[in-house]
């Protein structure tokens, strides 16, 4: 095993999306939502309670719940503690969140105008 390598990656169970689709102006998911989803899936995959993981991470159970629901932005220290409590490194947690972001981007590609297509707002100016 190479230093820093935590062995083979486990596949997290797939959960049904628990959030409503983003508003039309907000196509990108929030990082705190992605991290919360990963924390919750990993905890559930390990069949552990909020209390168990919160105690191991030395953070309050309500705060961990808020993190899992994407309601709070966590510091890197708190994220590292939560990851360690789940047997992950911070890099593992961030990598899993990045994987989720990539998966979501493939499912819902952003709509973009092509550079060659002019923008018309229906307004015509005459000289």
Report on this model:
It contains five helices and no strands. The chain starts with 30 loop residues before the first helix and ends in a 20-residue tail after the last helix. It is mainly α. The protein has helices at 31-45, 50-57, 61-68, 76-85, 90-107. Helix 1 (31-45) crosses helix 5, helix 2 (50-57) crosses helix 3 (61-68) and helix 2 crosses helix 4 (76-85). The mean pLDDT is 79.
Q: Portion of residues in helices?
A: 40-55%
Secondary-structure-based class equals mainly alpha
Strand content: under 5%
Distance between termini?
Answer: 73 Å
Please give the largest β-sheet: none
pLDDT averaged over residues: 79
Oligomer: single chain
Shape: globular
Rg (C-alpha, Å): 20 Å
How are helices and strands ordered from N to C?
HHHHH
Q: Low-confidence stretches at least 5 residues in length (pLDDT < 50)? A: none
Number of helices: 5
Strands, total number: 0
Characteristic key phrases:
127 residues; globular; mainly alpha; 0% strand; single chain; 5 helices
Concise overview:
With 127 residues, this protein is mostly helical. Helices cover 46% and strands 0% of the residues.
């Amino acid at each position: 095993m190479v230093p820093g390598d935590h062995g083979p990656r486990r596949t997290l169970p797939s959960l049904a999306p628990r959030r409503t689709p983003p508003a039309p102006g907000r196509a990108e998911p929030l990082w705190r939502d992605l991290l919360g989803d990963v924390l919750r899936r990993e905890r559930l995959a390990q069949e552990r309670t909020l209390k168990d993981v919160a105690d191991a991470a030395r953070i309050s159970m309500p705060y961990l719940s808020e993190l899992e629901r994407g309601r709070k932005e966590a510091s890197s220290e708190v994220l590292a503690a939560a990851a360690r409590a789940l047997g992950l490194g911070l890099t593992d947690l961030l990598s899993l969140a990045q994987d989720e972001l990539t998966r979501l981007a493939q499912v819902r590609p952003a709509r973009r105008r092509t550079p060659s297509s002019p923008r018309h707002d229906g307004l015509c100016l005459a000289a």
